[in-house]
């Protein structure tokens, strides 16, 4: 018998009230405390929607993020100037009424200084959700490979002479984030796509786990897998497996798509090649 499991992959659409509040906050027309109340309400509504749908694994809908990746640039200094197009540039292909969309790479995009974390990326998301549900909460983090577009041979060479050096620092910050989330009780951490972070977790798991999979140093053996969702390969890391459940592939279903790219699929970008160690 096949046991099917499903949970949300990607952001839920942010409600108009939250989008308006974010614009007011950026313009200095609303106090941070008032914005947080609106943001909390959007998270509560996202949670209620998933519970109503019968989901046993829930997320906060990524309501606290301008985009999937943006909690990194908000929490870490060194990325330089950016706007939302830093995460969306490229060629997108949509069928039917959606059509194609092309967004140019922002001219000034590029990490400009060594990365320095000001705060944790996703801890607020996890702690808030932990207090509001007894269901399994999934926390999502971007894989280091998604940050390759923030490295520029011209703008970044003083801080990071090669792309590899930059991504290694991104991976360090994300590993530290995983460690803190696990310390606070998180059991399901979703990295998209798997690549560098996934490999780093697997190496750490192997070095601290005995042959029977029990922990010998604070981490339990991480399981990883990939699924195909809307034509995009995504990776998932569960550290440790859910209580009573083995670390095994789970069927993921995309319920809704992001605000700016609904109905679109990104065409592959050419990867930066200067300074990359093959």
- The CATH class: Alpha Beta
**What spatial form do the alpha-carbon principal axes imply?**
globular
Uncertain runs: 196-264, 270-278
Helicity, as a percent range: 25-40%
Strand residue percentage: 15-25%
Task: Identify the strand order in the major beta sheet.
Answer: 1-6-7
- The assigned CATH architecture is Alpha-Beta Barrel
| Run of helices and strands | HHEHEHEEEHEHEHEEE
What is the total number of structural domains?
Answer: 1
The protein's oligomeric status is: single chain
* Rg on CA atoms, Å: 19 Å
CATH topology grouping: TIM Barrel
Classify the secondary structure makeup into a structural class: alpha/beta
**End-to-end CA span:** 44 Å
The number of strands is 10
Report the total helices. Answer: 7
The largest β sheet comes out as:
3 strands, parallel
Mean pLDDT: 76
């Amino acid at each position: 018998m096949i046991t099917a499991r499903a949970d949300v992959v990607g952001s839920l659409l942010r409600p108009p009230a939250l989008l308006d509040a974010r614009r007011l906050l950026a313009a200095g027309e609303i106090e941070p405390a008032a914005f947080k109340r609106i943001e909390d309400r959007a998270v509560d509504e996202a949670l209620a929607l998933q519970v109503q749908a019968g989901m046993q694994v829930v997320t906060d809908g990524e309501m606290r993020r301008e985009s999937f990746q943006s909690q990194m640039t908000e929490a870490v200094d060194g990325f330089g100037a950016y706007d939302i197009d830093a995460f969306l540039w490229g060629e997108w292909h949509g069928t039917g009424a959606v059509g194609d969309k092309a967004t140019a790479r922002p001219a000034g995009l590029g990490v400009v200084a060594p990365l320095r974390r000001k705060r944790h990326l996703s801890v607020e998301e996890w702690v808030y959700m932990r207090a509001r549900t007894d269901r399994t909460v999934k926390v999502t983090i971007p894989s280091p490979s998604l940050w390759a577009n923030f490295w520029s041979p011209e703008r970044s060479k003083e801080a990071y002479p090669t792309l590899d050096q930059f991504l290694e620092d991104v991976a360090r910050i994300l590993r530290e984030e995983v460690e803190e989330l696990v310390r606070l009780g998180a059991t399901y951490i979703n990295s998209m796509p798997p690549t560098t972070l996934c490999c780093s977790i697997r190496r750490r798991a192997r070095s601290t786990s005995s042959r029977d999979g029990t922990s010998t140093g604070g981490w339990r053996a991480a399981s990883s897998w990939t699924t195909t969702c809307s034509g995009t390969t995504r990776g998932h890391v569960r550290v440790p497996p859910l209580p009573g459940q083995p670390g095994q592939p789970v069927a993921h279903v995309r319920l809704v798509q992001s605000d700016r790219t609904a109905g679109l699929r990104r065409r592959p970008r050419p990867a930066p090649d200067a300074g990359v160690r093959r």
